[in-house]
Amino acid sequence: MNPLGRKALARLVGSQLPRDSFVNLGIGAPTQIADFVPPAAGVILHSENGLLNMGPAPLPGHEDWDLISASKSPVTLAPGGAFFDSSLAFAMMRGGHIDVAVLGAFQVSQRGDLANWSTGLDDGEPPGIGGAIDLAVGARSIWVMMDHVARDGAARVVAECTLPLTATRVVKRIFTSLAVIEVTAEGLEVSALLDGIGLDQLQACTGAPLRTAARVGSIAADGGLHWP
Amino acid sequence: MNPLGRKALARLVGSQLPRDSFVNLGIGAPTQIADFVPPAAGVILHSENGLLNMGPAPLPGHEDWDLISASKSPVTLAPGGAFFDSSLAFAMMRGGHIDVAVLGAFQVSQRGDLANWSTGLDDGEPPGIGGAIDLAVGARSIWVMMDHVARDGAARVVAECTLPLTATRVVKRIFTSLAVIEVTAEGLEVSALLDGIGLDQLQACTGAPLRTAARVGSIAADGGLHWP
Amino acid sequence: MRNAVVTDAAAAIAGLRDGHTVMVGGFGGAGMPPAIVRAVADLGVRNLTLVSNNAGASGDDLSLWFRQGLVRKIICSYPRNAKDFGAQYRAGAVELELVPQGTLVERIRAGGAGIGGFLSPVGVGTLFAAGKQSISVGGRDYLLELPLRADFAFVKGREADTLGNVTYNKAARNHCAVMATAADTVAVEVDRIVEPGALDPESIVTPCIFVDRVFVGVTA
Amino acid sequence: MRNAVVTDAAAAIAGLRDGHTVMVGGFGGAGMPPAIVRAVADLGVRNLTLVSNNAGASGDDLSLWFRQGLVRKIICSYPRNAKDFGAQYRAGAVELELVPQGTLVERIRAGGAGIGGFLSPVGVGTLFAAGKQSISVGGRDYLLELPLRADFAFVKGREADTLGNVTYNKAARNHCAVMATAADTVAVEVDRIVEPGALDPESIVTPCIFVDRVFVGVTA
What we know:
By secondary structure, chain A is an alpha/beta fold. Helices cover 14% and strands 31% of the residues of chain A. Chain A has one domain (6-226): 3-Layer(aba) Sandwich (Glutaconate Coenzyme A-transferase). Chain A has 4 helices and 14 strands. In chain A, the strands form 2 sheets. An 11-stranded mixed beta sheet of chain A has the order 4-3-2-1-5-8-10-11-12-13-14, sandwiched between helices. Chain A has a 3-stranded mixed beta sheet with strand order 7-6-9, with no helix packed on it. The radius of gyration of chain C is 17 Å and the shape is globular. Chain C has a single domain (9-114, 148-216), classed as Glutaconate Coenzyme A-transferase, CATH 3.40.1080. Chain C contains 6 helices and 12 strands. The chains are: A alpha/beta, C alpha/beta.
């Protein structure tokens, strides 16, 4: 009944990544997904600062500050990994070579519009866009991972984004703390629901019409997904 | 009195390359210049198929057909040489990183227009442009090396090119079998003359007005250049 | 774990069909994948659009494709000294799109990098400007050049690991590295296949994200 | 023979003047040349236009330049978490041109490669389209993005030879490799300088044609 926490949500997303796919995990919450990708899945992680086949964090004391992730945290390189420059890193992104990018978001519209960049309008800080916009436009499949509602209870899955957009019509699937929602040509379709939540309750905190998929999975409190 | 042969002309051009410069020698006659660049000059040769610091031809029996020049002849790599892909090779050219490119030509106009590609109109063969056009547009200084007149005696240094152009207003200096001619904002200026040839004789077989530079060098039969 | 290894050239070209666009790496023979070129000739597909810097010299190279009439159109920078292509060309049996070499490689790069086009200073004021949009930026004229992509890219590498990371040999890298980014299916003929981790991660030129199939070309 | 070696960071930045445009490599600290960054701060030039992916975190990095008010404008993708830049920005003392990271690196590449501009799908339908020419190709909309060049590019390499060929260390390659192609004067701070021939010609990332000055950065 409680919304999924960050870890459980990361586990949920991690379990759904396609076998042997090339995946970019955006900075912020999506980074944690790496800890929950089953090794047998063969997923190969891309990092926009010039790494392919990124491995887990190094042991304490073994950090190499020339070997960092897009979040600027120390990482390792898995066997068969490669280093390259930023122009090739972004060619991979913009050129459609990344199978799935998982991004955090502030808002997603029913058409798949994405608002996820820090404009600085709220916090008085300088704005920052980084590489998320290139991913949003270029990856074959954009998944979003976010709390279902904002801290003030406002819907984040909306009819129209009110925040400045990162990209239009790009999000394919939304993983929230309450549900998995597919963005289809006919609108939003719920493909999985957190145990104990009904569609009515989900609709009540969602800013765009929802319908259910032919088959709806149930999400356990730990992020495990089970099909009927 | 006889026009310079290929070897003597190659020696002449080779002696004029700036110290420590990055140079591309076009396919055809300019290729031979490599044999006449004084080692002490420190010239570094670029080849459009992905070599920097190209060395001389290998000894017989030591050919490596993965190590060829733009003319598709076996070469070697000098110490401190590098391999790279064609996109970087042409970035070097188009991006203005080559100091001097020496190209063959059919015609050069008084404004520095260059006609040097095989259109196939004359020989019934398919046309071919290759990378000479990228060099012609991108190198900082374009030098042309050619016989002063065509086999039928027609001028090749002309007021206006009649053959299809490779690039407009790019040639800086013309080395012919009879003279060295600078392309200036005020027209063509003879900076060196083959021993035994007068300006009148040169003008008679040239299709655009010539004037002489303040100082005119004399070119020996072996391609040696001497200043008064 | 990802495994890009296939058994042979026939497997590497599986799915190639009549009418496909095909990129073939190489500058002269360096970078051209010989076993793949022969396998395509054996398969006998037709109406190919071929993207390649050259059009085959003679013998066991792209000449085979022209001799057998597999190619409808070639996009190429220097198709001279190519006997079989020349015969087809003079007979009007094959269409030629002549592209300056630097523009050719940059168009392929754009296709692989998701760039919609680029402004080139090359060709302005020449026959190569024909049919192209001219755009002026900062007082200088440029031609708008459009990206190239292909159904298949066939290139020659030196070593690959089983994931599909690839290195090249010397000047054989040429057009191969960009072509390997710009096709729906990328097949690489190599001399040797090694385990992941055996290649220096600093020296991998084509990371495995671009590569679908690798195999060891049997040299005669 | 060409010799790109200079004695120290002060010599590497010689000629840098007020009002210059300067590219500084790095993603976070990886690829940022620390001795050069300090030398520029010591020199105290002003009104710089800075092209960099970040705007300094805190301490001994580009923060120094903002703390001392050296920068008039920054062209950058992610200048957040940058205390000193943030203060200058809020005070209206520095102009910010915010550029998506992939567009930033591609604009720099275009500057180095003699490309007059390129069509990017990134930013269409967003605030990043403001003021840019929109061009439609094949039914898809793109923004025309223009090249970036600089008076100086300052990057961090791993090894250089005396000719100026450069390798990088792991993910520190990032923006350094393109920046090293796009400035009138390119200076590279490295850990070690070797003789020509000591670097593997297959592994050189920045060939010496792009590099004007190399020196060994003394690490504290």
